[in-house]
Amino acid sequence: MAITPNSLKSNPRASHASLVKWYISECTDQAQSHKYKQASLLAGELDELYQTSEATCGFEYHHYKPDSHPDYLVYCNAKQFANIEGRKLVPEWWPNVQRDCIEECDLSSAERGLYLPCENWIEFDQGRDGLMMAGIWQMVRSHGEDQTGDWERIISTLESWQSSKGTITCSKTVRHFHQLLGHADQIGIMCGRGSYLKLMKQHLYGSQTDAHIQYLSSITNDSWEHSLELYSTHLKEHGSYLRPATSVDIDLGSDLLLPQIGIELHPQGLLGRALPDLLLSLLDDVFKIDSDQIESVENLLNYLPKGTETRGFLDGSEKMSRKKRVAKLNHIKVIFSPDSHAKLKSYVRLVEQHS
Fold first, then answer.
1. Cα–Cα distances in Å, from 186 out to 116, 182, 246, 249?
2. Which of 161, 241, 222, 239 is nearest to 197 (CA)?
3. What is the mean pLDDT of each run of 10 residues along the chain (355 residues)?
4. Which candidate, 183, 333, 188, places its Cα nearest to that of 267?
5. Which residues pair with 199 in a beta bridge?
6. Which residue range(s) make up the domain with 238?
7. How many domains does the chain have?
8. What is residue 243's three-state secondary structure?
9. Are the C-beta atoms of residues 185 and 137 closer than 8 Å to each other?
């Protein structure tokens, strides 16, 4: 990471706009820079919404569609996120999210058990007229020990956001997920996509990875058996490093899984400029990802910056300040469907900190 002395502005706040601009100018293929135009505009609008000492955002890349625009994601406080004059950013049910999410500073007075935090990933898709909110990846966290009925309370709350009474609490597909894997760590609530729900559960320990394989076996057909055996073998030896996650999409209208099952991999320390050999082996030998998609990820990594750190005195002050920027591959996602080859996504996280 490069460290540069400098004189810093008197208002040392982090900026989504400057972070995205830095990413575009220093770490992307300039021939592809037009794909980030709408994200740059939205990042500037976000800076007008709220001030923060740390800005976190990222991009979702679809390597099976190399000409597509990456989706823009922002990690922020739902209670500070709102519509901008002349532009509708949030859906009509957003006040319900703000009502039910809990600030970290309020946890001391909150009941023990599962809760919905305010800090979440907000996802944007490339629409016809620019970026549009695709949904929220609502996190589920524990405050003390989980209590009986916690999960039922959480999903009942989620139903109230979109007035979809009974569709989640009565879903056999959601219940099957919970029975084998426990409560979801993230729940994707989508905008304008019908009655779809996304569930993600990360598996950090041996017993959890066993449940991960058991769940995948329960929702796939016999053609997966050999791949699951190979994948299971990798997890027994390297599960604590790969940190896998189960990701599924549910059509609540029919109470069925959509025919695309996701496996996320969150290897530790992915700041390098190349995919680790273990990950490459998994993608190539086990998941049979075609070479063009793997090459696309590797090309993306070639353009990631190593990060910057600027230290200096604030204008008109003797106070020392520091500005730090980091870009990293956060995780990759392999998507399986019965009618096509496996598809690959990657997620890049960008962070700007002021202190």
1. 10, 12, 11, 12
2. 161
3. 46 82 79 83 83 89 90 89 72 89 78 90 76 87 84 91 76 95 94 84 90 93 83 91 94 90 88 82 92 93 78 57 86 86 94 85
4. 333
5. 187, 248
6. 2-354
7. 1
8. coil
9. no
